[in-house]
Write a structure and sequence with these properties.
The protein is α+β, with helices and mostly antiparallel strands and 604 residues long. It has 20 helices and 23 strands. Strands 7-3-2-10-18-19 form a 6-stranded mixed beta sheet, with no helix packed on it. Strands 12-11-23-22-21 form a 5-stranded antiparallel beta sheet, with helices on both faces.
């Protein structure tokens, strides 16, 4: 007995020591651990910032949503004088409740009635009810219908909506159901738009029920910052629809329209086709990216602008330099032709550009070294991204001149053997329109935080590519393209002087590993003598006509006409220049500066 008593006393002494340690020395730590085990944390989502156009139209916004739930054991007393359910009245009450709720929830009444029948204490009826819908439901005073009151769940679940739908879908981007940004401005400005998530902490019992007396710790969410774009909503809508209509007429594979402020580089519209509805992203088909930034193509004749501007800047040619354009031009192992068969022609450099002669442009390019030509192409923005940071943007393809093949030395001059994006192509014309100064495109105009502070995005930096005199001369030459003797008279706009260039290039298709179809384009600006707006139209693989002047030219005309009216840009009232496109054969033959099939100059 004494041994047993000693053993019991020893065990009890251990228990006592443990009790002293837990309640004396380690009391705070043990209490904290216990509280941690019974504490639950629920995130409070932040409302994502709005995306707006430059004229204040909402392109993307977050709207609050409420989860509506039901206690089926209480619904059966709806519009009855009883406090408890019975078989006689429950069916009738549930039917009345279903009839009242169905139109508000947008659900089938029969299915809703089935969903309201039973003994479940918690059943979700709708996860995405708007606050207005919930207020209408609450006014019905149906017993057992309530919004989820779990701590944190009483905060409405935000849902992203896009009021303009497909008009700016691939530019603005989308947000998935789990809150992840999916391309476009949504992804580009994600850290700015998403805000800071809040949270609520509360204590629960062993069965998971909230302990009311324990209180709650709540940290409110901070909503995201609004982002304002440089895009004009009306012009974006018009450009998207004009593009879609032309795509249907020509049965083209894809297309883009880019409108840009000629002086600041601000993007006024960036339409891309095919498009999709970001409000129903689950049904979107095909590519969700904006093709103006991500799709590369050989520019074709629109690149001739750079070749001629480069030669004029280096003084190897002038607008009036005679060019003898033969019917064909052999270079290395290939014979080059123009878009149409012709006898020997006697043109000026202006005429070469107006008539879009491949052969004439090659002759002009041979007055420069390949290295020098490449330098100018890069100054115009080729081979590098635009600087907007747009997701999925391509830098295009411009091989170093020392790696050009024999035929590529000729083809790059008229826009084949290199690739650009629509943004880059528009930037080339912006440079000439802006007196020879290239300005990086700008898409984000400003941000506005929760307290209303507006932060303007810095203006884009400019870099001179060619002198002002050369830019003005090239601009006047481009007016010859839309003249009756040019390749795109369809691009003329009544009352305005227009400058631009057509492009029709073979289209490389990676799916077949070779050329398939054409790329048709027209890029220009207006008013030509005081440029304000640049518009680029690119159509990929049109099959019902494929020349740039006849397919892309009319789209340019319509979009530019709308832009001039929308932005209230008046005609200048000045007369277009008189251009010299041709020269007399005898004069060309006798002129020592004439460009001919025996190339002269540093590039010869």
């Amino acid at each position: 007995m004494r041994t047993l008593l000693v053993a019991v006393a020893f065990v009890l002494s251990i228990f006592a020591a443990q009790l002293v340690r837990i309640q004396g020395f380690d009391a705070s730590a043990v209490a904290a651990e216990a509280r941690k085990q019974r504490t639950a944390t629920v995130a409070i989502p932040a409302l994502r910032g709005q995306i707006l156009s430059s004229d204040g139209v909402v392109l993307a916004a977050s709207q609050e949503r409420i989860t509506v739930v039901a206690d089926l054991t209480a619904i059966c007393t709806y519009q009855t004088k009883k406090n408890k359910c019975d078989d006689a009245s429950s069916g009738q009450a549930v039917g009345k409740a279903a009839a009242a709720l169905a139109p508000l929830l947008g659900q089938d009444e029969a299915k809703l009635r089935e969903n309201l029948t039973g003994t479940a204490r918690y059943r979700i009826l709708e996860r995405q009810a708007t606050p207005l819908t919930w207020r209408k439901i609450a006014d019905l005073r149906i017993p057992g219908i309530y919004k989820d009151q779990t701590p944190g769940a009483d905060v409405s679940v935000p849902q992203r909506t896009y009021p303009t739908g497909p008009a700016a879908a691939s530019l603005v981007g989308f947000v998935t159901n789990d809150g992840k940004a999916g391309g476009g401005v949504e992804q580009l400005m994600d850290s700015t738009l998403q805000g800071t998530v809040g949270q609520v902490e509360y204590e629960t019992s062993a069965t998971g029920e909230v302990i009311p007396a324990a209180g709650q710790t709540r940290k409110e969410a901070v909503n995201g910052t609004d982002v304002r774009l440089t895009i004009n909503s009306g012009l974006q809508w018009y450009a998207q629809n004009a593009l879609a209509q032309k795509m249907e007429q020509t049965n083209a594979l894809s297309g883009t329209v880019v409108a840009m402020n000629a002086k600041t580089g601000d993007l006024l519209a960036v339409a891309s086709y095919p498009t999709y509805d970001p409000n129903d992203i689950g049904r979107a088909k095909g590519s969700l990216t904006n093709k103006a930034f991500g799709e590369v193509f050989e520019p074709g004749s629109t690149a001739k602008l750079m070749t001629i501007a480069a030669a004029m800047q280096d003084g190897t040619v002038t607008p009036d330099t005679p060019v003898i354009v033969p019917p064909t031009l052999p270079r290395y192992d290939q014979v080059f032709n123009d878009s149409h068969a012709h006898p020997t022609e006697y043109r000026t450099v202006t005429g070469v550009l107006a008539e879009s002669s491949n052969i004439g442009t090659v002759l002009v390019s041979e007055t420069l070294t390949p290295k020098r030509l490449e330098e100018y192409f890069r100054k115009f923005g080729l081979g590098t991204k635009s600087g907007t940071g747009f997701p999925g943007e391509s830098a295009g393809l411009l091989t170093k001149s020392e790696d050009w093949s024999g035929t590529q030395r000729a083809t790059v001059a008229f826009g084949q053997g290199l690739s650009v994006t629509a943004i880059q192509a528009a930037g080339v014309f912006q440079t000439i329109a802006n007196n020879g100064v290239r300005v990086e495109p700008r898409l984000i105009e400003s941000t506005t935080d929760k307290d209303g502070t507006v932060k303007q995005t810095p203006a884009s930096k400019g870099s001179r590519v060619v002198d002002e005199k050369v830019a003005k001369q090239v601009s006047e030459m481009l007016e010859g393209v839309v003249s009756p003797n040019g390749t795109a008279p369809q691009a003329q706009i009544a009352g305005y002087r227009v400058a631009g260039k057509t492009g029709t290039a073979d289209r490389y298709d990676p799916t077949v590993g070779g050329y398939s179809g054409k790329t048709a384009s027209f890029i220009g600006y207006a008013p030509a003598d005081d440029p304000q707006i640049v518009v680029a139209v690119i159509l990929q693989r049109p099959t019902n006509g494929y020349f740039g002047g006849s397919t892309a030219g009319p789209v340019f005309h319509d979009v530019m006409t709308y832009a001039l009216q929308e932005l209230k840009i008046p005609p200048t009232g000045t007369a277009a220049p008189q251009l010299v496109l041709d020269v007399e054969p005898s004069a060309a033959e006798a002129d020592p500066t004439t460009l001919r099939n025996k190339p002269k100059g540093s590039g010869g």
